[in-house]
Design brief:
With 340 residues, the protein is α/β, with parallel strands linked by helices. The protein contains twelve helices and nine strands. The strands form two sheets. It has a seven-stranded mixed beta sheet with strand order 4-3-2-5-6-9-7, sandwiched between helices. The protein has a two-stranded antiparallel sheet with strand order 1-8. α3 links the parallel β3 and β4.
Length: 340
């Protein structure tokens, strides 16, 4: 039987970067088995660092990440960025099926090649595309080694995903991972910290050194587990994020300094007029007349009143916690100020 054509590989042997090998496709290959590399060795393709590709090569780290996901035999797993399939294989072995989303067409071919002719072939579905633009299928658990370029967008997409999933076990660059759990007053505390902690419980699971990847990235990595809060908090997230985004644009300034700028006041006044118009259309004349009586008070006056209250006077966004932000938003909404 003629040998199958193989794509030419570059770099060192793949034994270290692809620890999971599959059995030979047919007994006819036995004659070449002494000189053949494990099937996993066919996965040593050159990573495209412009796409943020850094292949996880340490099997012990792969095993630990899969264990942290606590998979059930009935689970559907969403894997984002499977690469050459080093983590895909153990995920398939411990779950009902895996749906993998991969941008790089080379990697799509490689991960499919890893399962070709095996019992795992029917359990794997690979979607070629951008994970941020691709509509996610139903899944129970998400596992991902995430490129830095899409980390923030991917987290926000997962936070808003419905139906809810059980958990996501994800590897990020260390600084980004620490932002997810940063507390008020810490240097890394930011909009991402607040929004993520509002909608989910985040745990730091493990640190992963640079040398566990091919090629080694410039920074260390961390693995985190994200579990959505169920039920979600009773807050309009669009309104909430409008306020949080505004306050964290200059998180070290006082609330008054951030909110009392001309562009912000103009935006809030426009929002107030829109809200009053909606109320006038949806409510009876009595409510409309009450709105007209309040219309003389502009956003700037309301902001002055709120930020001069004892609990907000001279406060800064970088020192406020979730309860503080929730109370602040409620106070503004009660007075007719909306951030979306």
């Amino acid at each position: 039987m003629p040998k199958n054509k193989r794509i030419r590989r570059s770099g060192p042997t793949a034994a270290s970067s692809a620890p999971y090998s599959l059995s030979d496709k047919s007994s006819n290959d036995a004659t070449n088995s002494r000189n053949a590399k494990p099937e996993g060795a066919s996965n040593l393709v050159a990573p495209n660092t412009s796409l943020g590709q850094h292949f996880l090569k340490n099997p012990a780290v792969v095993t630990a990440i899969v264990a942290k996901a606590a998979l059930k035999s009935t689970d559907t797993v969403l894997e984002i960025g499977p690469g050459t399939g080093n983590m895909t294989i153990p995920l398939l072995q411990q779950s009902k099926n895996v749906v993998a989303i991969e941008y790089d067409t080379r990697m799509v071919r490689e991960v499919l090649k890893r399962v070709e002719g095996t019992e795992n072939e029917r359990k794997l579905k690979v979607i070629q595309g951008d994970a941020i633009k691709t509509r996610f299928p139903f899944f129970d658990v998400c596992v991902a080694n995430v490129p830095y370029q899409i980390s923030s967008a991917l987290v926000f997409k997962l936070l808003s995903h419905r139906p809810m999933f059980r958990c996501a076990v994800m590897m990020f660059q260390e600084e980004f991972a620490l932002r997810l759990t940063a507390r008020p007053g810490e240097a890394l505390y930011c909009r991402l910290s607040v929004n993520c902690q509002l909608l989910a419980k985040v745990d730091q699971l493990m640190k992963v050194g640079r040398n566990n990847f091919r090629p080694p990235p410039k920074v260390e990595s961390r693995v985190v587990r994200i579990e959505l809060r169920n039920p979600p908090p009773p807050v309009n997230f669009t309104e909430w994020d409008g306020m949080i985004r505004l306050l964290f644009n200059r998180k070290n300034k006082t609330l008054r300094s951030v909110l009392m700028t001309k562009p912000t006041i103009k935006m809030l006044n426009e929002n107030m007029r829109t809200q009053r118009a909606l109320n006038s259309n949806n409510n009876n004349n009595t409510h409309a007349m009450a709105d007209e009586d309040d219309a003389e008070q502009g956003a700037d006056e309301i902001i002055e009143e709120v930020v001069n209250m004892e609990q907000w006077k001279d406060k800064r966004a970088n020192k406020l916690d979730l309860d503080d932000f929730l109370a602040l938003l409620a106070e503004f909404n009660k007075r007719g100020v909306h951030f979306a």
